C-alpha cells in the first residue's frame, strides 16, 4: 500500500504523457469517399520544433489546451487543394519539416480532405468559402490571445490558394503573407477580386504559376507572380495523355516541388521581370535596375526580402526556367553575337560551358535567331549546372534546315555575361562557325571597345 502511494502519481503522469504524445495524422480517404462525396470538416494539425514529426489535433476554440502553441512565434498555415482520390498529399510532411528547420514557428496543416475529396469539383469549390470562414474564426481567436496577424503566413496550393485569399479578405488584408502555389483556375477565371485571391488579401502576396493552360490561373494575382517555364509545360512532365494521370496533374503539382526546393535552399532560381516568357527567352529582360542593390528577386520562400519594393511596384510578373528534375534551378547567361556576314543569317546556337571536367549545355532553340552585319544579337543561354568559372567554351551554329545550303557564321565577337554573379564578361574575337560543326575555344576577359 505504501508503494502504491508513490507509484500512482507517476503512472498517471506517464499515462497523460502517452495520451499527449499520440500523433494526429492527415485524414486518409479513398476513391470511394470521393465518388459518393464528402461533407466539409476542418482538422487543424499543429507542428512545432518540439513536435516536428508528431502532429497535435487542435481545438478550434480552446487554445489553452495546447501549451506548446506559442502565440509569440510566427504561424504558418499550409492549405492543400482539391483531392479527387481522397489520398493525403504526399508533400505535406516534407514541407512542414523544412519550414520548422528554417525558423522556430508554429506550422498548422489545414486538413480539409473531408470537403476537398469529391469527384464533383464544383462541390469542393463551394467548400472553399466555408473552410475560409472556419479558419477566419480560428485566427481571430489567435489574435484575441495575443497573436500578431502580421506574423501569419498562409501557403495555399490550388484551391488552398483561394481559401487563403478568402481568409485574407475576411481579415481586411491584415495577415502578413500569402504564398499561392499554382492557384486553381477552373471556376475562378474571370471572377472579381472578392471571389478569388488578389493582392489586397495580405500585406504581401507571392504567387507561382506552373499550369496556366489547364488547372491553374493565368492572370497575375499577387504583388509578384512567378511564371516557371512560362507557366506551362513543365520540363520532365508527360506530353501525351497516354501517360495516364500524371499528364493531368504533373504541371500543377510541380509548383509544390519548386517551392519545397526554395525552402530547403537546394539552389536558387533568379526571376526576371518581363512582359512575356518569349521576351525573357529572347534576352530582352535581363535588367533589374528597379530593385537597386538587391538585384533580381529570387523565387520562393525568401522573396519576402523584396517585399517593400514589390508592394510599391504594385504587381510584377517575373519569369524563370527550370530543369526537368531536382535540383530545378538554372544559371542564366547573356550571349551576345556580332557577325560581319554581309547577308543576314538565321539559325540556332548551342553553347557548352566547361569547368574542371564539368560540361553544361545551353540549347538556344526556342526560335531561330537572326544575325546581321555589325549588329548585336542577344540570346539567353541557360544551363542546369553551376559552372563556377568558364575555362572553355564550345559553340555550334545550325540553320535548322537540312535541305538548305550550308552557311558559315563569320563572328566578329562573342561575349558571355553571367547574369547572376558579378563576373567580368568573357569574349572571343574573330571566329568562324560552320553549319553543324562545333568549335571549342578558351574565352578571355572582354576588352573595352566600341562594338
In short:
With 451 residues, the protein is of the alpha/beta class. The protein has helices at residues 2-20, 31-36, 92-102, 113-116, 121-144, 159-170, 245-264, 277-281, 307-313, and strands spanning 43-47, 56-57, 75-79, 106-111, 152-157, 177-181, 204-209, 224-228, 272-273, 316-320, 331-339, 345-355, 358-371, 376-383, 392-398, 408-418, 426-434, 439-441, 444-445.
**What is the CATH third-level topology name of the largest domain?**
Rossmann fold
Mean pLDDT level: 92
**What is the name of the CATH class of the largest domain?**
Alpha Beta
Number of domains: 2
C-alpha Rg (nearest Å): 26 Å
Give the low-pLDDT segments.
Answer: 6-20
State the major sheet.
10 strands, mixed
Give me the count of strands: 19
Q: How would the global form be characterised?
A: elongated
Helix content: 10-25%
First-residue to last-residue Cα separation = 99 Å
Amino acid at each position: 500500500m505504501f508503494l502504491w502511494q508513490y507509484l500512482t502519481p507517476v503512472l498517471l503522469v506517464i499515462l497523460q504523457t502517452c495520451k499527449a504524445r499520440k500523433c494526429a495524422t492527415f485524414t486518409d480517404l479513398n476513391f470511394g469517399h470521393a465518388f459518393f462525396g464528402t461533407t466539409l470538416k476542418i482538422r487543424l494539425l499543429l507542428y512545432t520544433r518540439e513536435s516536428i514529426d508528431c502532429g497535435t489535433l487542435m481545438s478550434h476554440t480552446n487554445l489553452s489546451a495546447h501549451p506548446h502553441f506559442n502565440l509569440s512565434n510566427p504561424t504558418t498555415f499550409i492549405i492543400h487543394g482539391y483531392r479527387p482520390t481522397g489520398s493525403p498529399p504526399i508533400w505535406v510532411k516534407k514541407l512542414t519539416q523544412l519550414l520548422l528547420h528554417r525558423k522556430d514557428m508554429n506550422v498548422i496543416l489545414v486538413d480539409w480532405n473531408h470537403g476537398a475529396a469529391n469527384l464533383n469539383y464544383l462541390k469542393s469549390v463551394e467548400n472553399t468559402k466555408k473552410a475560409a470562414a472556419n479558419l477566419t474564426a480560428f485566427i481571430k481567436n489567435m489574435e484575441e490571445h495575443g497573436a500578431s496577424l502580421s506574423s501569419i503566413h498562409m501557403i495555399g496550393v490550388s484551391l488552398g490558394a483561394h481559401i487563403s485569399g478568402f481568409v485574407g479578405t475576411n481579415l481586411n488584408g491584415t495577415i502578413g503573407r500569402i504564398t499561392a502555389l499554382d492557384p486553381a483556375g477552373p471556376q475562378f477565371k474571370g471572377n472579381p477580386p472578392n471571389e478569388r485571391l488578389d493582392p489586397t488579401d495580405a500585406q504581401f502576396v507571392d504567387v507561382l504559376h506552373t499550369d496556366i493552360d489547364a488547372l491553374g490561373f493565368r492572370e497575375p494575382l499577387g504583388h509578384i507572380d512567378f511564371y516557371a517555364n512560362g507557366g506551362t509545360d513543365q520540363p520532365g512532365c508527360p506530353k501525351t495523355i497516354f501517360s495516364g494521370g500524371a499528364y493531368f496533374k504533373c504541371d500543377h503539382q510541380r509548383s509544390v516541388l519548386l517551392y519545397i526546393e526554395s525552402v530547403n535552399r537546394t539552389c536558387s532560381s533568379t526571376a526576371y521581370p518581363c512582359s512575356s516568357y518569349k521576351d525573357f527567352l529572347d534576352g530582352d529582360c535581363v535588367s533589374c535596375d528597379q530593385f537597386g542593390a538587391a538585384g533580381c528577386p529570387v523565387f520562393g520562400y525568401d522573396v519576402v526580402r523584396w517585399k517593400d519594393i514589390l508592394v510599391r511596384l504594385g504587381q510584377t510578373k517575373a519569369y524563370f526556367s527550370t530543369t526537368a528534375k531536382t535540383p530545378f534551378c538554372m544559371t542564366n547567361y547573356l550571349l551576345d553575337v556580332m557577325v560581319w556576314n554581309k547577308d543576314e543569317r538565321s539559325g540556332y546556337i548551342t553553347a557548352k560551358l566547361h569547368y574542371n571536367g564539368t560540361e553544361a549545355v545551353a540549347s538556344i532553340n526556342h526560335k531561330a535567331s537572326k544575325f546581321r552585319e555589325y549588329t548585336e544579337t542577344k540570346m539567353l543561354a541557360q544551363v542546369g549546372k553551376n559552372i563556377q568559372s568558364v575555362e572553355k567554351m564550345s559553340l555550334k551554329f545550325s540553320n535548322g534546315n537540312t535541305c538548305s545550303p550550308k552557311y558559315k557564321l563569320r563572328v566578329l565577337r562573342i561575349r558571355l555575361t553571367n547574369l547572376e554573379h558579378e563576373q567580368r564578361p568573357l569574349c572571343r574575337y574573330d571566329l568562324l562557325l560552320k553549319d553543324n560543326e562545333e568549335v571549342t575555344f578558351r574565352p578571355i576577359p572582354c576588352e573595352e571597345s566600341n562594338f
